[in-house]
Amino acid sequence: MQKPNVMRERVRRMPTQEGAGTAPNADALLQLVARGDEAAFARLYDILIGPVFGLVRRVLRDDTQCEEVVGEIMVALWQTAARYSPERGSAMTWALTLAHRRAVDRVRSAQSAVDREDRVVRGELSRRFDEVTEQVGMRREHDQVRRGLGALTDVQREAVMLAYYDGRTYREVGELLGTPPGTTKTGLRDGLIRLRDCWGATR
Amino acid sequence: MSPDVHVLTGAYALNAVNELERVDFERHLAVCEACAEEVRELRDAAARLGRAAALAPPPGLKARVLADIGQVRQHPPTVAPLRLRRPPARWALRLSTAAAAVLLVISATLGVLLVREQQSGKERQEIVAILQANDARVVTGEVDNGGSATVVMSRSQNRAVVLTAGMGRLQPGQVYQAWMVVEDENNRDEIIRTKSAGLVAGSRLDIDVLGAANAFSITVEPEGGSARPNLERKVAYFRLT
Question: I need a labelling partner for B123 at 20 to 30 A (CA). Which of A31, A112, B138, B147 fits?
C-alpha cells in the first residue's frame, strides 16, 4: 500500500493547468458568491463555464438551446450559492450536478424528446468517449477519464455514457442495450463505483 | 421500499431516474446516510466525466450572465431558521382534532371554494378523508393574477387536493399548470424539482403522490401542459412545510 500513497502525493503536488488544481479556489469563491460578491462570481464563472458549457452542449446537442440553458444555470448558481456547503463536495461537482440536472430536464421535455428519437434513428449515440470533444490543455484530464472508462466492462461503460452524456434514464439505457432494468441499475452503480475508485487517488 | 433500493444510487447520481423514482429515493436518502454518502461520491465521479467534456463558451455569454445576476435576488440557505420562525398561522394551519371540528376550522378558509365548485359527494369525501389524517394541513397562497390556491394535504396519506379560486382568465391556448416542488437539499438546487402534472383549470386537482414535495407552484403553460415549468410565467409559489 506504500506505493499508491506516494503516487497520490506526487499527483496532488503536480501543477495543473485546470481542473483539479482549481477546485479549492472554486470552493472558496463560491462561499464569497454566497455573500453576494459579484467580483468573486465573475472569477468563479471563468473556472466553471468551460465544463458547464461543454457538458450541457454534450447533453443537448443543440447550440441555440444550449446557450440559453447555460445562461440559466449560471444565474441559478449565483442565486443558490448560499445552499452550498464545502464539506459535502467541491464547487465543481455542485455546479456540474446542477448543470446536468437542468440539461437532462430540458432534453426530456416534449419537443427535445422527439428530436432525440430522430437522432437515435440516425445512430448518434454516446457510446464512445472519443466523441467527447477534445480541447487543448485537457489532455491529462482526458487521459484519466479514458483510463477510468477503460477499466469498465463494455456494458457498464456504454450504460454510464448513455445515462450521463445523453441524459437517458436507466430504463431507456436498458432498452438501448438490451439489458433488464434491474441489471441496468446495478451496472450504472457498479460502473460509477469503479470510476470513483479509479479516480479517487487523483482528485 | 424494496430491499434493493440502495442500488439506485448510481442511476440517481446520473439523473437517470424518472421524477417519481427521484422523489421516492430522496425520501430514502433523508434517512439513509450510507446511500447519501455514496451519492456524494458517485456525483463526484460523474462530475469528472462532465469536466472532460469542457468546451470554450460563446464569447458574449459572460457579459449577459453578469448583467442578469444584477437583476435577480439570491436565495437564502436551504436550512433557514428564519423561515421556520415565521408564524405558522399566516398561511399554514395544522389540523389534528376530530373531523367535525376540523371542518369548522376549514370552512373559514375553504367554505367559499367548496360551495362554488359544487363538488360531488365523492369529491367532498376525498377532502374530508385527507382532513381526518392526524397530520392534515391546509396551506393557502396567493396567485399573482388574482385569486388563491389552497393545498389540503396529508403526508401520511401521501396525497393532497388543490383548490383554486378567483384566478384570472388566460388567453386562448394557455392553461394553468400546478407543480409539486421538491426543494432539493442534496443538490441544493433551487428550482422546481418535481412535478405532479395536471392542469388547474381554476377548480380542483387531486395529487396522488405527495412524495417529498415541500413547495407548490402554479405556472402558465401552453395548452396541454408542459413537461417542465416555465418559471418566467410563475404565478404562485409557496412552501408546504
Answer: B147
Q: Do A75 and B68 touch (CB under 8 A)?
A: yes
- Between B136 and A185, residue with greater pLDDT: A185
Q: How far apart are the CA of A201 and the nearest CA of chain B, in angstroms?
A: 12
Express each pLDDT in A146-197 by its tens digit.
889 999 999 999 999 999 999 999 999 999 999 999 999 999 999 999 999 9
Residues 78-117 of A with CB under 8 A from B: 78-85, 88-90, 92-94, 96-102, 104-106, 108-110
**Which three three-digit cell numbers place residue A114?**
422527439
- Residue pairs spanning A and B at CB distance below 8 A: 215
Helix (H) or strand (E) holding B18: none
Residue A12 has, within 13 A of its CA and on its CB side, a CA count of: 10
Strands B159-165 and B148-154: antiparallel
By DSSP bridging, strand B204-207 and strand B159-165 are antiparallel
Q: Does B82 touch chain A (CB under 8 A)?
A: no
Number of other residues whose CB lies within 10 A of the CB of residue A21: 12
pTM for this prediction:
0.59
DSSP assignment string, A115-184: HHHHHHHTT-----GGGSPP-TT-HHHHHHHHHHHHTS-HHHHHHHHHHHHH---HHHHHHHHT--HHHH
| The residue to which cell 442495450 is assigned | A177
| Contact A127/B at CB under 8 A | no
Contact B54 A142 (CB under 8 A): no
A36 touches chain B (CB under 8 A): yes
pLDDT digits (tens, 9 = 90+) for B172-219: 777 777 777 766 555 443 444 334 444 444 455 666 566 667 778 787
Structural contact between residues A165 and B49, judged by C-beta atoms closer than 8 angstroms: yes
pLDDT tens, residue by residue, A86-98: 888 899 999 999 9
Cell of B133: 389524517
